[in-house]
Design a protein that fits this description.
The protein is an alpha/beta fold and about 280 residues long. Helices cover about 50% and strands about 20% of the residues. It is built from twelve helices and nine strands. Strand 5, helix 7 and strand 6 form a beta-alpha-beta unit. The chain starts with 5 loop residues before the first helix and ends with a helix. The structure holds ligand C2E and magnesium ion (3 copies).
Length: about 280
Protein backbone atom coordinates (compact mmCIF):
# COMPACT_ATOMS: atom_id res chain seq x y z
CA UNK A 1 0.00 0.00 0.00
CA UNK A 2 1.16 3.48 -0.87
CA UNK A 3 1.51 6.23 1.64
CA UNK A 4 -1.71 8.21 1.72
CA UNK A 5 -3.75 5.05 1.24
CA UNK A 6 -6.46 5.54 3.84
CA UNK A 7 -6.47 1.94 5.04
CA UNK A 8 -2.76 1.68 5.63
CA UNK A 9 -2.76 4.79 7.71
CA UNK A 10 -5.71 3.54 9.70
CA UNK A 11 -4.07 0.19 10.40
CA UNK A 12 -0.83 1.90 11.36
CA UNK A 13 -2.73 4.25 13.63
CA UNK A 14 -4.53 1.40 15.40
CA UNK A 15 -1.36 -0.60 15.96
CA UNK A 16 0.42 2.43 17.23
CA UNK A 17 -2.43 3.23 19.59
CA UNK A 18 -2.44 -0.33 20.91
CA UNK A 19 1.20 -0.12 21.73
CA UNK A 20 0.68 3.13 23.51
CA UNK A 21 -2.22 1.75 25.50
CA UNK A 22 -0.48 -1.33 26.86
CA UNK A 23 3.20 -1.15 25.99
CA UNK A 24 3.88 -3.62 28.80
CA UNK A 25 1.86 -6.34 27.02
CA UNK A 26 4.14 -6.03 24.04
CA UNK A 27 7.16 -6.08 26.36
CA UNK A 28 5.96 -9.23 28.11
CA UNK A 29 5.51 -11.06 24.81
CA UNK A 30 9.05 -10.15 23.80
CA UNK A 31 10.39 -10.94 27.25
CA UNK A 32 9.00 -14.48 27.14
CA UNK A 33 11.14 -15.07 24.07
CA UNK A 34 14.18 -13.29 25.49
CA UNK A 35 15.31 -16.20 27.66
CA UNK A 36 15.18 -18.74 24.82
CA UNK A 37 16.81 -16.27 22.44
CA UNK A 38 19.71 -15.67 24.82
CA UNK A 39 18.96 -11.97 25.14
CA UNK A 40 19.26 -11.83 28.92
CA UNK A 41 22.66 -11.19 30.50
CA UNK A 42 23.65 -11.03 34.16
CA UNK A 43 25.78 -7.99 35.01
CA UNK A 44 27.69 -7.63 38.28
CA UNK A 45 28.30 -4.59 40.46
CA UNK A 46 30.88 -4.52 43.29
CA UNK A 47 29.88 -3.94 46.91
CA UNK A 48 32.74 -3.08 49.27
CA UNK A 49 32.93 -3.96 52.94
CA UNK A 50 34.13 -0.89 54.86
CA UNK A 51 35.76 -2.89 57.64
CA UNK A 52 37.58 -5.54 55.62
CA UNK A 53 37.83 -4.00 52.15
CA UNK A 54 36.44 -7.28 50.83
CA UNK A 55 34.32 -7.17 47.70
CA UNK A 56 31.24 -9.08 46.73
CA UNK A 57 28.86 -8.55 43.83
CA UNK A 58 25.21 -7.89 43.15
CA UNK A 59 23.76 -9.61 40.09
CA UNK A 60 21.76 -7.12 38.01
CA UNK A 61 19.87 -8.33 34.99
CA UNK A 62 20.21 -6.76 31.54
CA UNK A 63 18.04 -7.36 28.51
CA UNK A 64 19.62 -6.76 25.10
CA UNK A 65 16.60 -7.18 22.88
CA UNK A 66 17.27 -7.75 19.18
CA UNK A 67 14.19 -5.70 18.39
CA UNK A 68 14.04 -3.12 21.18
CA UNK A 69 17.69 -2.59 22.02
CA UNK A 70 18.76 -2.36 25.66
CA UNK A 71 15.55 -2.24 27.68
CA UNK A 72 15.79 -0.43 31.06
CA UNK A 73 15.77 -3.05 33.82
CA UNK A 74 13.23 -1.23 35.99
CA UNK A 75 10.68 -1.19 33.17
CA UNK A 76 10.93 -4.82 32.10
CA UNK A 77 11.04 -6.05 35.70
CA UNK A 78 7.82 -4.13 36.37
CA UNK A 79 6.19 -5.71 33.30
CA UNK A 80 7.47 -9.13 34.33
CA UNK A 81 6.04 -8.73 37.82
CA UNK A 82 2.68 -7.64 36.48
CA UNK A 83 2.43 -10.61 34.16
CA UNK A 84 3.97 -13.29 36.38
CA UNK A 85 6.91 -13.93 34.00
CA UNK A 86 9.15 -12.72 36.84
CA UNK A 87 9.25 -16.21 38.37
CA UNK A 88 10.84 -17.71 35.31
CA UNK A 89 13.26 -14.79 35.07
CA UNK A 90 14.31 -14.87 38.72
CA UNK A 91 14.85 -18.64 38.58
CA UNK A 92 16.92 -18.21 35.44
CA UNK A 93 19.12 -15.57 37.13
CA UNK A 94 19.44 -17.82 40.18
CA UNK A 95 20.75 -20.69 38.04
CA UNK A 96 23.15 -18.42 36.16
CA UNK A 97 24.54 -16.94 39.37
CA UNK A 98 25.10 -20.40 40.91
CA UNK A 99 26.88 -21.50 37.75
CA UNK A 100 28.97 -18.33 37.92
CA UNK A 101 29.83 -18.83 41.59
CA UNK A 102 30.97 -22.36 40.83
CA UNK A 103 33.14 -21.20 37.92
CA UNK A 104 34.82 -18.43 39.96
CA UNK A 105 34.79 -19.87 43.46
CA UNK A 106 38.47 -18.99 44.10
CA UNK A 107 37.79 -15.26 43.78
CA UNK A 108 34.13 -14.94 44.76
CA UNK A 109 32.88 -15.38 48.26
CA UNK A 110 29.30 -14.38 47.72
CA UNK A 111 26.82 -12.84 45.26
CA UNK A 112 23.57 -11.00 45.94
CA UNK A 113 20.52 -11.68 43.80
CA UNK A 114 17.29 -9.69 43.55
CA UNK A 115 14.11 -11.68 44.04
CA UNK A 116 10.68 -10.15 43.62
CA UNK A 117 7.97 -10.87 46.18
CA UNK A 118 6.18 -13.20 43.73
CA UNK A 119 9.29 -15.34 43.48
CA UNK A 120 9.69 -15.39 47.25
CA UNK A 121 6.07 -16.46 47.57
CA UNK A 122 6.57 -19.37 45.17
CA UNK A 123 6.15 -22.59 47.20
CA UNK A 124 9.10 -24.34 45.57
CA UNK A 125 11.60 -21.48 45.95
CA UNK A 126 13.62 -23.12 48.70
CA UNK A 127 13.74 -26.49 46.92
CA UNK A 128 14.87 -24.83 43.70
CA UNK A 129 17.48 -22.72 45.46
CA UNK A 130 18.87 -25.71 47.30
CA UNK A 131 18.93 -27.90 44.20
CA UNK A 132 20.70 -25.14 42.23
CA UNK A 133 23.27 -24.95 45.03
CA UNK A 134 23.87 -28.69 45.14
CA UNK A 135 23.98 -28.96 41.34
CA UNK A 136 26.88 -26.48 41.28
CA UNK A 137 28.40 -27.43 44.62
CA UNK A 138 27.72 -24.09 46.24
CA UNK A 139 27.24 -23.29 49.89
CA UNK A 140 23.91 -21.44 50.50
CA UNK A 141 25.93 -18.89 52.51
CA UNK A 142 27.37 -17.72 49.19
CA UNK A 143 23.97 -16.43 48.11
CA UNK A 144 22.36 -13.32 49.50
CA UNK A 145 18.74 -12.67 48.62
CA UNK A 146 17.71 -9.04 48.15
CA UNK A 147 14.03 -8.69 48.71
CA UNK A 148 12.76 -6.23 46.14
CA UNK A 149 9.21 -5.18 46.72
CA UNK A 150 7.54 -3.27 43.93
CA UNK A 151 4.09 -4.73 44.42
CA UNK A 152 2.26 -4.47 47.69
CA UNK A 153 2.98 -7.12 50.26
CA UNK A 154 -0.30 -8.73 51.30
CA UNK A 155 0.50 -11.52 53.69
CA UNK A 156 3.39 -10.87 56.03
CA UNK A 157 3.11 -14.09 58.00
CA UNK A 158 3.87 -16.40 55.11
CA UNK A 159 6.80 -14.22 54.06
CA UNK A 160 8.18 -14.25 57.61
CA UNK A 161 8.04 -18.07 57.62
CA UNK A 162 9.66 -18.23 54.21
CA UNK A 163 12.53 -15.92 55.18
CA UNK A 164 13.10 -17.82 58.41
CA UNK A 165 13.39 -21.11 56.48
CA UNK A 166 15.77 -19.59 53.95
CA UNK A 167 18.02 -18.27 56.70
CA UNK A 168 17.96 -21.61 58.50
CA UNK A 169 19.18 -23.18 55.25
CA UNK A 170 22.08 -20.73 55.30
CA UNK A 171 20.99 -18.11 52.76
CA UNK A 172 21.47 -14.46 53.68
CA UNK A 173 18.53 -12.07 53.36
CA UNK A 174 18.49 -8.31 52.80
CA UNK A 175 15.70 -5.73 52.44
CA UNK A 176 16.37 -3.72 49.28
CA UNK A 177 15.50 -0.03 48.72
CA UNK A 178 15.08 0.56 52.42
CA UNK A 179 13.32 3.82 53.27
CA UNK A 180 11.35 4.13 50.05
CA UNK A 181 8.14 2.51 51.23
CA UNK A 182 5.65 3.44 53.88
CA UNK A 183 6.17 0.03 55.46
CA UNK A 184 9.98 0.06 55.55
CA UNK A 185 10.22 0.31 59.32
CA UNK A 186 7.55 -2.31 59.83
CA UNK A 187 9.49 -4.69 57.59
CA UNK A 188 12.55 -4.06 59.70
CA UNK A 189 10.46 -4.83 62.78
CA UNK A 190 8.81 -8.05 61.57
CA UNK A 191 10.98 -9.58 58.85
CA UNK A 192 13.94 -11.77 59.89
CA UNK A 193 16.78 -10.25 57.85
CA UNK A 194 20.58 -9.91 57.98
CA UNK A 195 20.84 -6.60 56.20
CA UNK A 196 19.09 -3.52 54.86
CA UNK A 197 20.11 -1.60 51.77
CA UNK A 198 19.50 2.12 52.05
CA UNK A 199 17.93 3.33 48.82
CA UNK A 200 20.05 5.44 46.51
CA UNK A 201 17.55 8.29 46.74
CA UNK A 202 18.93 9.07 50.21
CA UNK A 203 22.54 8.67 49.19
CA UNK A 204 22.37 10.76 46.03
CA UNK A 205 21.40 13.90 47.95
CA UNK A 206 23.76 13.16 50.80
CA UNK A 207 25.84 16.13 51.94
CA UNK A 208 27.19 16.98 55.35
CA UNK A 209 24.39 18.10 57.70
CA UNK A 210 21.73 17.60 55.07
CA UNK A 211 18.38 15.97 55.89
CA UNK A 212 19.72 12.83 54.21
CA UNK A 213 22.78 12.89 56.47
CA UNK A 214 20.57 12.93 59.58
CA UNK A 215 18.19 10.27 58.25
CA UNK A 216 21.00 7.92 57.23
CA UNK A 217 22.89 8.43 60.48
CA UNK A 218 19.71 7.59 62.42
CA UNK A 219 18.99 4.50 60.33
CA UNK A 220 22.55 3.32 60.94
CA UNK A 221 22.30 3.84 64.70
CA UNK A 222 18.99 1.99 64.75
CA UNK A 223 20.26 -0.89 62.61
CA UNK A 224 23.29 -1.30 64.92
CA UNK A 225 20.96 -1.58 67.93
CA UNK A 226 18.86 -4.33 66.36
CA UNK A 227 21.87 -6.14 64.96
CA UNK A 228 21.24 -5.64 61.25
CA UNK A 229 23.97 -4.74 58.75
CA UNK A 230 23.62 -1.78 56.41
CA UNK A 231 24.65 -1.27 52.79
CA UNK A 232 24.37 2.13 51.14
CA UNK A 233 23.61 1.99 47.42
CA UNK A 234 24.14 4.71 44.82
CA UNK A 235 27.42 6.06 46.25
CA UNK A 236 28.85 8.28 43.51
CA UNK A 237 31.12 10.80 45.24
CA UNK A 238 34.02 10.68 47.68
CA UNK A 239 32.13 13.04 49.99
CA UNK A 240 29.15 10.66 50.20
CA UNK A 241 31.50 7.76 50.93
CA UNK A 242 33.28 9.77 53.65
CA UNK A 243 30.02 10.57 55.42
CA UNK A 244 28.91 6.94 55.24
CA UNK A 245 32.23 5.62 56.54
CA UNK A 246 32.17 8.13 59.42
CA UNK A 247 28.64 6.98 60.29
CA UNK A 248 29.88 3.32 60.38
CA UNK A 249 28.00 2.07 57.36
CA UNK A 250 28.99 -1.57 56.79
CA UNK A 251 29.06 -1.73 52.99
CA UNK A 252 29.18 0.71 50.08
CA UNK A 253 27.92 0.25 46.53
CA UNK A 254 27.72 2.69 43.66
CA UNK A 255 29.39 4.13 40.58
CA UNK A 256 32.32 5.38 42.71
CA UNK A 257 33.32 1.73 43.12
CA UNK A 258 32.13 0.48 39.76
CA UNK A 259 29.13 0.34 37.48
CA UNK A 260 27.30 -2.90 36.80
CA UNK A 261 29.19 -4.71 34.00
CA UNK A 262 29.83 -8.17 32.60
CA UNK A 263 31.99 -10.09 35.05
CA UNK A 264 35.01 -10.09 32.68
CA UNK A 265 35.15 -6.28 32.86
CA UNK A 266 34.09 -5.71 36.41
CA UNK A 267 37.43 -6.47 38.08
CA UNK A 268 39.64 -4.22 35.94
CA UNK A 269 37.11 -1.39 36.29
CA UNK A 270 37.12 -1.91 40.03
CA UNK A 271 40.92 -1.74 40.23
CA UNK A 272 40.90 1.49 38.22
CA UNK A 273 38.19 3.09 40.36
CA UNK A 274 40.22 2.23 43.47
CA UNK A 275 42.53 5.24 42.95
CA UNK A 276 39.61 7.52 43.75
CA UNK A 277 38.52 5.97 47.00
CA UNK A 278 41.30 3.73 48.38
CA UNK A 279 42.44 6.25 51.01
CA UNK A 280 38.91 6.25 52.49
CA UNK A 281 38.89 2.67 53.77
P1 LIG B 1 18.25 -2.45 42.92
O1 LIG B 1 18.34 -3.88 43.28
O2 LIG B 1 17.93 -1.49 44.00
O3 LIG B 1 19.63 -2.12 42.22
C1 LIG B 1 20.24 -0.87 42.28
C2 LIG B 1 20.04 -0.10 41.00
O4 LIG B 1 20.79 1.11 41.09
C3 LIG B 1 20.57 -0.81 39.76
O5 LIG B 1 19.74 -0.43 38.67
C4 LIG B 1 21.97 -0.22 39.61
O6 LIG B 1 22.45 -0.29 38.28
C5 LIG B 1 21.72 1.19 40.05
N1 LIG B 1 22.92 1.84 40.61
C6 LIG B 1 23.94 1.25 41.30
N2 LIG B 1 24.84 2.18 41.70
C7 LIG B 1 24.40 3.37 41.24
C8 LIG B 1 24.90 4.72 41.33
O7 LIG B 1 25.94 5.00 41.91
N3 LIG B 1 24.14 5.68 40.75
C9 LIG B 1 22.97 5.40 40.10
N4 LIG B 1 22.30 6.42 39.56
N5 LIG B 1 22.47 4.16 40.00
C10 LIG B 1 23.18 3.15 40.56
P2 LIG B 1 19.31 -1.49 37.57
O8 LIG B 1 20.45 -2.40 37.30
O9 LIG B 1 18.72 -0.73 36.43
O10 LIG B 1 18.18 -2.32 38.28
C11 LIG B 1 16.98 -1.74 38.66
C12 LIG B 1 16.20 -2.62 39.60
O11 LIG B 1 15.73 -3.78 38.90
C13 LIG B 1 17.01 -3.20 40.75
O12 LIG B 1 17.15 -2.23 41.75
C14 LIG B 1 16.15 -4.38 41.15
O13 LIG B 1 15.09 -3.96 41.97
C15 LIG B 1 15.59 -4.82 39.83
N6 LIG B 1 16.33 -6.00 39.34
C16 LIG B 1 17.53 -6.08 38.70
N7 LIG B 1 17.86 -7.36 38.41
C17 LIG B 1 16.83 -8.12 38.88
C18 LIG B 1 16.55 -9.54 38.88
O14 LIG B 1 17.34 -10.39 38.44
N8 LIG B 1 15.36 -9.93 39.45
C19 LIG B 1 14.46 -9.04 39.98
N9 LIG B 1 13.33 -9.52 40.50
N10 LIG B 1 14.70 -7.72 39.99
C20 LIG B 1 15.86 -7.26 39.46
MG1 LIG C 1 19.17 -4.96 44.71
MG1 LIG D 1 18.12 -1.08 45.83
MG1 LIG E 1 15.81 -0.21 43.18
Amino acid sequence: AKLGDGNTLKVFHINHQNEEMRPELYLVQELKEAIVNNELVVFFQPIVSVKTGEVHYEALLRWFSSRLGLVPTDSFIAAAEESGVILEIDFWVMGKVCEHLAAHHEELHHVSINLSIQTLESPDLETRLLSSCSKYGIDPGMLEIELTEHTLLEDETSLIKKLRCLRESGFKVAIDDFGMRYASFNYLRVLPVDKIKIDKAFVQNLKRNSKEDHIITSILALAKKIGVNVTAEGVETVEQAEILVAASCDELQGYLFGKPAPYEHVQTAFEQAKKQWSRLL
